Each structure stands twice: as structure tokens, then as C-alpha cells.
Amino acid sequence: MSKHIHKVHLKSRTIHPAAYYFEGIKSGNRTILSEAITLVESTNIEHEKVAEDIIELCLPLSGNSIRIGVTGIPGVGKSTFIEAFGLSLVEEQQKKVAVLAIDPSSEKSKGSILGDKTRMTQLSSHQNAFIRPSPSAGKLGGVAEATRETILLCEAAGYDVILIETVGVGQSEITVKSMVDFFLLLMIAGAGDELQGIKRGIMEMADAILINKADGDNVKKAELAQQEYKNALHLFPPNKNGWIPQVATCSALNKENIDVLHEIIDQFVRLTNSNNSFKENRKKQAKFWFDETISNAIKNLFYNDPKIKGELISLERTVIEGEISPFKAAKKLINLFKN
Amino acid sequence: MSKHIHKVHLKSRTIHPAAYYFEGIKSGNRTILSEAITLVESTNIEHEKVAEDIIELCLPLSGNSIRIGVTGIPGVGKSTFIEAFGLSLVEEQQKKVAVLAIDPSSEKSKGSILGDKTRMTQLSSHQNAFIRPSPSAGKLGGVAEATRETILLCEAAGYDVILIETVGVGQSEITVKSMVDFFLLLMIAGAGDELQGIKRGIMEMADAILINKADGDNVKKAELAQQEYKNALHLFPPNKNGWIPQVATCSALNKENIDVLHEIIDQFVRLTNSNNSFKENRKKQAKFWFDETISNAIKNLFYNDPKIKGELISLERTVIEGEISPFKAAKKLINLFKN
């Protein structure tokens, strides 16, 4: 929905030169920031060109935020938590906070896009907060590219904390992990069935686990869960950056113990700055997205080749049925592609 | 070392037609099986052709084993365990067992290749066991291709159980996981520093964890570790195939409680056959290797393109230093490749 509004919005106006958006972004104008992000998300060639220039102008001003990924299954209270945490950042810590959502399936579920803003009513009306619904997956680098470039624009606009929320399930956790400094997993007590929604491997990616909804009758259960996750994380091999993932409880609803995350993140930043892994991680991520974009693009070239398209489906079937070695089948296609 | 011996061996003989090797494999001739595997591993074009034909002949006879991946850090007692488990399979269960090792770094560390056979002295001299050191990574599909095709040949030769041991560290666990039905992680008690060697995510891939060296003073510690790992695995999201990873203790040295693995694997096979996930997993793996081989081959085409080679290094540097967006840099290279 909101995407449509933006598009109409843009069409009804002139596209300005990149410098216009850059100046607006620098000065903290949220409307212009929003318009620039819409250009970044657009697949229109004219828009893309301006967007590239805006990004190039913003790059030298970017990189000065802490980028935090927030994930958790539906029902864990993600929006309530982000609202509470965001408010504590803007009100108590005088920070500027941007909230971005990433949803690889957003093209199908445009209905949910407007939801974010309406859920975070207090935060979205704060002058130092900027909430942006998730982009759709039209571009070459898809949602990841649009989100990563949106981070840069928000940083150039002076946002100190960028919260990137995963929406939906699937690959979004890995995508988000590859573009943030700190990865937060929200949980609720009484695990078991609730865990069904979390992909295997997500827990090992977490820099912190917060057991939310530690309120009312739930406090004891949450504390028990905290201990269990602590024990479990202890069994994981240590992170290369030396960070030991932290586990805590909180109640986003009652805004209780939200501060614990400030402390955890401060510790994390201090440690990773002192051993240089903070910067190294960002360099690795830039390299990752470079490699990833190339990999996706050359796969597109291959799988859209008419010669390949003609053979792929039948060959794939024989591979799956065990009638041909997958390696031999692959070589057949590669030879077809080369000629 | 042993690879060199094989090569000389082949050179000094005529290469037979594929049917010769196929008949030898079918009849259970281990020398001919060995020679055929050497052809599969070879990068010589003449050898490759015969190897492809041998694989094609063997394919209809393959697939009837249980493929078991065995991993664990150095010092965990992998060889001792495989020897004990292998012997219990051939002696008590009247099975035919093939042991393959996979070592992505084998080209550099040929010294370790001969080690396997000398370490598993009892098993290697048993008539129903076949131990094969790891191939080197010369082929397009690398070590994975050679190993996966070796599995097919061993199955055609009537081996009921294929044990694939990871050697060294790195990506080999993921490679092995993608070619086996059942993945076993060997551990020792007193975790902590020992875990350093295990990559994050390996524990979640395990279908069973065996705490080895549960002997002497170590029994209590091993049982404690067993309980800890059980608790930890319980916190993981469940496997899609419905299997709950099992944890047990054993002493490979004293050949104690090795049988527990027979029971676990029997349960696993029964469950995954009953819900069809055993076969589905193999189909998925065939598709995976098909896609993976294509992906690697087209990356080779790209990165070996002289135009790309000329630009890549300097562009990569600007990406890592944050001077250019990784997406923009990738697009530059893609456009260069297309023209």
C-alpha cells in the first residue's frame, strides 16, 4: 500500500537531481529521506541512476550507526519490543533511531507493509525516529540491496541506531545477519512448539537472546528459559570476535528491563571496537554482498539462457530420479552454455 | 602418497573398457573397485570418459546403502571409533562396510592420506571392509564429486554401510552432510576449549552426538556432557523429517556401547522410511549437487574471464574500503562480462 502511495507521489513530481536529495538527507528532512529511499527501491532506470548518485554522495557520511537486526517468530512481541526499545533510545539516550523492516515476501503481502507504522504509534510520531516499511524485491540485489542502501541513506541522515526487523520467515534472518553489527533474537518462555517457526541455525547467529513477555505469571517461566538458553549457548563454539552471546528477560509491554539491551550492546561495541572485529565484520559484509550480487547475476544469465531453459527441466528430473549423476548432468548444461 | 602409487599403477597398465571395471565391481573385487575409484578421481580426460561410463553402469545398482557421515575435532578418537564401529558392523551384523575420507585440503597434506589405513589396522584387513583414503580436489566438482561418485561405486559393489569421515576442518562437514543419510558428531567430555575446533552450526546438523572416551575416570564427565548436550539439542527447532537427534556415550577404545549407534541408526532409518524423508533427502541432495556444480562452473567462467580478472582486485578493494557500494561494483563487473 504505502509503496503504491510513494510511487504515485513520485510520478506526480519531478525527479530532482541527486544533490537535492543529498542536501535534504543531510539536513535531516525525513520527507526527502523517504523520497530518496523510494528511488533506491525503484526499478525504473531513471530512478536507479539518480539513486546511485545519491548513494555515492551519502557513502562518505555513512557507517557511523550501530546496525541491529531483530528477529523472532510471530507472537513474540517484536513490534511492541521495537517500540519500547526505540522509545528508550530516543527519549532516554537522545539517539536518532531508524526502523527498517525486511520482508523477502513483501511483493505478495503488501497488506502487511502499512502495519508497522500503525503498530508502533508512539515511536513513529517521535521526531527522532524514522520508520520505513519493507521494500519489495524488484531489483537485481533484491530486498537485500534496497535495505542495505537504505541503511546508508539513514546513516547519512544522522540516525545513530538502525533497527532492522525481519518480517515473515525464510531466508530473511540470514540476509539481515549479513548486514548488521549486532543480531538480537527475541524469544518467549515455554519453548517447544513456539520454536517450530525458528529456522535451525538462527540461535547460533544471535549476539543476544531476550526472553520477552517476562511479566505477570510469566516471570518465573521466563527466568527458567533464560537459564536454559544460557546453558545452551554455552555449549556452542565461541564467536571468532570473542563475544559471548547474552541472555536476558524483559517485558516490552510493561517497558521493563529494556535497558538491559543498552548495556549489552555497549559491551558488544566496546569489545568489538577494541579487537577491531567491528570494522572487520563490516568489511567482510561488503565483500559478501559484492560476491553475492555477482553470484546471483551470473546465475540469472545462465538460467535465462534459452539453450539452458530448453534442457533444464527434463535434465533436472533425471537427476532427481537418480538416472544420471548430478555432476554429469551439470557438465552437459555448462557445455551448452559455453557454446 | 597412496594417490601417487595408484597413478603409477594405472599408467603402467592398459585402461580397460568400462564394462571390465563394472563386472569387477559387481563381483566384489576390491582391487578393481580401487582402480575404478582412481579413474573417478583422475583429471586425465581419457580416464574421465571411462569413469563416466563406469558410473553410468553402476547407477542402477547404487543407492542401497546407508550413508553415514562422521565428524569430530582431532583428538576425539574418530579413527578408533570408526574401527570399532566398522568391526561391529562386519563381525556382528555381517555387513559390508566402506570407509571413505573426505579432506578438502588433501592436495596440501598428502602425508595424512596414508594414515587412515595404518590407523584402522583391524578393520582394513577384514574381507568385508573397504577403506579408501580421500581423493584430491582436481576435478570440476572437486572432492565432493569424487567422493559422491565413489559412494555409488561402493554401493554397486554391495557395501551396505558407507562411512564418510571428515578430515581436517573447514567446509568438509557441510559437504559431507549434503551427501549422507545420517550425520554423526563425535564429542568428548569436558567441552569448552575443545569446541574451538568445531564450526558453529555443526551441532545443529547432527543426527546423533556420541560422547566418546567414556572410560575410566571419564565416565561421569561423559554422562554429564551427555545430559548437557541433550538439553541443548532440545532447545533446537525440530528437524523437518521428525527425527530427534540422540545423544549417547561410548568408549571406542574399550569397544563399549558401540552398539547404541546401531539402534539409533535403525530407529532413524525406520522413521525416515516410514515418512518417506529418507528418499526425499536423497533427491534433494542430487538436486543440490546438480545446482552446486552449475554454480561453481559458471563462477569459474566468470572469474577466469580476462576482462574480469583485470578489474576484480582493484574493485574489490574499493568495496571493502567502503568507497563504492558493493552492488554498484558488482554491476560494473557483470556489464563487463556480458559484453
Mean pLDDT of chain A: 86
Instruction: Please tally the β strands of chain A and state the result.
Output: 7
Helix share bin of chain A: 40-55%
Number of domains of chain A: 2
**Percent strand of chain A:** 5-15%
Q: Tell me the strand order in the biggest sheet of chain A.
A: 3-2-4-1-5-6-7
CATH architecture of the largest domain in chain A: 3-Layer(aba) Sandwich
Q: Which segments of chain A are poorly predicted (pLDDT under 50) over 5 or more consecutive residues?
A: 1-9, 106-116
Mind summarizing the main beta sheet of chain A? 7 strands, parallel
Structure description:
- Two copies of one chain form a homodimer.
- By secondary structure, chain A is α/β, with parallel strands linked by helices.
- Chain A folds into two domains: 62-273, Rossmann fold (3-Layer(aba) Sandwich), CATH 3.40.50; 288-338, no CATH class.
- The first copy, chain A, is 54% helix and 11% strand.
- Chain A has a seven-stranded parallel sheet, with helices on both faces.
- In chain A, helix 3 crosses helix 4 (45-58) and helix 3 packs antiparallel against helix 8.
- The longest helix of chain A has 27 residues, at 277-303.
- Chain A is globular and about 65 Å long.
- Residues 1-9 and 106-116 of chain A have low confidence and may be disordered.
- The interface between A and B is large, with 65 and 65 residues.
